[in-house]
Amino acid sequence: MLFTVKAAADETVAATERLDDGFGVINDISEFTPPSPDAAAPIEEAQVTLRELGLSDVVRVVAEATSAVTENAFQRRSRAAGYAGKTASTVAEAEQKLA
Fold first, then answer.
1. DSSP codes of every residue in 22-52
2. Cβ neighbours of residue 33 under 8 Å, at least 6 residues apart?
3. Is 80 exceeded by the pLDDT of residue 9?
4. What does pTM read for this prediction?
5. How many helices (H) and strands (E) does the chain have?
6. What is the pLDDT, as a whole number, of residue 72?
7. Biggest distance spanned by C-alpha atoms of the chain
8. 86-88 and 57-61 as β-strands: parallel, antiparallel, unpaired?
9. pLDDT at site 97
10. Which of 99, 73, 75 shows the shortest CA–CA distance to 87?
């Protein structure tokens, strides 16, 4: 089964539609590789939609191997959607920052 960026974005939005305003998201991009420019559109659309659905906070899990291009692209798009994400080096650290 091919899992596309669009499918991941759609699944994320669908899962958050049931949440109350003020929800937070941990986004593990530690193994994410920079996608093609075409893949950026679904990510950006999902970020905007999440904000409209009541997103209050995002913590991105990054690793030393995470591309600065990837991390900066997520941050740039989130600011355009109306929020700024935090970063953490582990999911446990992200959970603490989100709490």
1. T-EEEEE-TT-----HHHHHHHHHHHHHHHH
2. 67, 70
3. yes
4. 0.83
5. 4, 3
6. 86
7. 35
8. parallel
9. 95
10. 75
Packed helices 68-81 and 37-52: angle between N→C axes, nearest 10 degrees? 40
Kindly list the distances between the CA atom of residue 74 and the CA atoms of 2, 44, 90, in Å, as whole numbers in the listed order: 22, 8, 17
Residue that wins the pLDDT comparison between 1 and 58: 58
Are 91 and 26 spatial neighbours (Cβ–Cβ below 8 Å)?
A: yes
Residue with tokens 């906070």: 57
Spatial separation of the C-alpha atoms in residues 82 and 67, rounded to whole Å: 23
Q: Which candidate, 52, 53, 58, 50, places its Cα nearest to that of 26?
A: 58
- Tell whether the model's pLDDT for residue 1 goes beyond 60: no
The residues with which 61 forms a beta bridge, in sequence order, are 28, 88
